[in-house]
Amino acid sequence: MIKTSQTGHSLPKPSHLPPSMFFQACSLRRIPHTLCQIRRYSEPAATVKKPAQSAPKSSCPADTVLTGLNYLKGQEPVLAKPDEEYPDWLWTLLEPRVIPDDGPGGRAERYKRRLENKQKIRERNFMLTQ
C-alpha cells in the first residue's frame, strides 16, 4: 500500500492495478496526478522537386461526339474541340477552392463553419429517415 501525503488515503501499488484502474482510482480520491509526455520529432523530409505541371489533357480526343449535349430538336451533334481551343480557366474548375485564412471571425472561418453546419443538417435529416 502507498500512503499519500496530501489526503491520507492509501492506494495499492500501481503495478498491481491496470493503468486505467489506477488513474480512475486516483481521480475518484482526488489525488493529483501528472502525466508525462515525451515528444519525438521526425527528421525533416528531403526536398522533392515536383515536375512542372502542364495543362491537363481532356478526357476525350478532339472531334469525339459528346452524346447528350445536343438537347435541341434537329441540332447537329456536339463535337469535342482540341484542348487549345478551350479557355485556360476551364482546367482549374475541378481544383478545390482555396480561401485565405484571415484570422478569427474572418471569411475562411465562416466558410468552414457553414460547411460543418450543412453536413450536420444532412446527417440529422438522414437519421430522421431511418
TrEMBL record:
It comes from the Eukaryota. It is found in: Mitochondrion. Belongs to the mitochondrion-specific ribosomal protein mL54 family. Pfam families: Ribosomal_L37. Keywords: Mitochondrion, Ribonucleoprotein, Ribosomal protein, Transit peptide. One of its GO terms (cellular component) is mitochondrial large ribosomal subunit. This is Large ribosomal subunit protein mL54. GO terms for molecular function: structural constituent of ribosome. The lineage of its organism: Eukaryota, Fungi, Dikarya, Basidiomycota, Agaricomycotina. It comes from Armillaria luteobubalina.
